[in-house]
Amino acid sequence: MSILQLPRARPKLILFDWHATLVDTMDAMYYALDEVLPRLGPLGLIERLVPPGKSKTLEDAKLVRYIREHASLHPKIKSERRISRTDIFELLFGDDEDAKKIAHREFDHSYERYFGAVKPMEAGARDQLLALRGLGLKLGVLSNRARRFMAHEIYTVDNCGWHDLFDTMVCGDDVARRKPFPDLILKALEETGLPADGSCWYVGDSASDVVAGNNAGVTSIFYNGAGWEPAWIDKIFPGTARYPHRPDSVITTLDELVGLARQLLFANRAENVKNP
User: Fold this and answer.
1) What is the residue extent of each domain of the chain?
2) Nearest to 35 by CA among 94, 115, 91, 97
3) Residue 137: phi, psi to the nearest 5?
4) Rounded distance, CA 219 to CA 212, Å?
5) Phi, psi of 24 (to 5 degrees)
6) What stretches in the chain show pLDDT beneath 50?
7) Most buried in the list 10, 56, 88, 185, measured by CB within 10 Å?
8) How far is CA 32 from CA 107, 119, 191, in A?
9) Which pTM does this prediction carry?
10) Where does 13-24+117-274 sit in CATH, by number?
């Protein structure tokens, strides 16, 4: 169920990343990136790319070099469609927050031309979310995307919308800083009146999601819907002094997440019965 370990606390609230965790909007995302990357030069961002020798992995360094030379994603990355735009901007610009703000702003301008079609990442995803609500849990959804995009997508997914499933929704333009900063998570906790501790599980598919969860002090669960090999997950979450962030658990399906929640909740109930 998990290649790492069980979450450290039973859940009260489960927050989800939107894109590539709950829903598939890959086409629109990569169409927008195809427009943004050629504009990095005119925007003055090429010279602000992470310099050689400063990338987390060799693969990251190759991606930065390719974009510096071609102002586009490598065809293999576009065909696989496994990396989020947030992670792409993170590995391109590192700690240059101003450069990332410019890149995200340009992405929003382009995404506006392509967004609309949205479908669940997994068949039966709505049923799994309902199963979590049936366990007495609060649910929330977070996204680096602008609210104007999320408002459309959450009301149209699955031909019926999922707006009724969540107790909170926080978007990129609702906070001062997007993921990997913890602002989205902390705002969702404020809106639900719950503390920033392990009883909040944050589920996301990207390295930025894991970093955001760690920075917020909540349980961080990596959703491996892209099917990364365990060795690759260890590579992108090395647990070193420079890159310390690691998820508390890894799942590959929402059904596994429901199983984790049930396991911890029922274990706690059994303990309460044993020691009233």
Assistant:
1) 13-24+117-274, 26-111
2) 115
3) -95, 145
4) 10
5) -110, 110
6) 1-3
7) 185
8) 6, 18, 31
9) 0.90
10) 3.40.50.1000
Residue located via tokens 């925007």: 43
Q: What is the pLDDT of residues 110-154, one digit of tens each?
A: 999 998 889 999 999 999 999 999 999 999 999 998 999 999 999
Mark residue 217 as left, alpha or beta (left: phi above 0; alpha: psi -120 to 50; beta: remaining).
left
Distance of CA 163 to the CA centre of its chain: 19
List strands edge to edge, sheet with 249-251. 168-171, 138-143, 13-17, 200-204, 219-223, 249-251
C-alpha neighbours within 13 Å on the C-beta side of residue 87: 21
Burial 148-168 (b: 16+ CB within 10 A, else e): ebbeebbebbeeeebeebbbb
Cα–chain-centroid distance for residue 238? 18
Q: Please give the Cα distance from 40 to 37 (Å, whole number).
A: 5
Q: How many residues does the chain have?
A: 276
Local structure of 69: helix, strand or coil: helix
Determine the residue type at 45. Answer: L
Amino acid identity, residue 86?
T
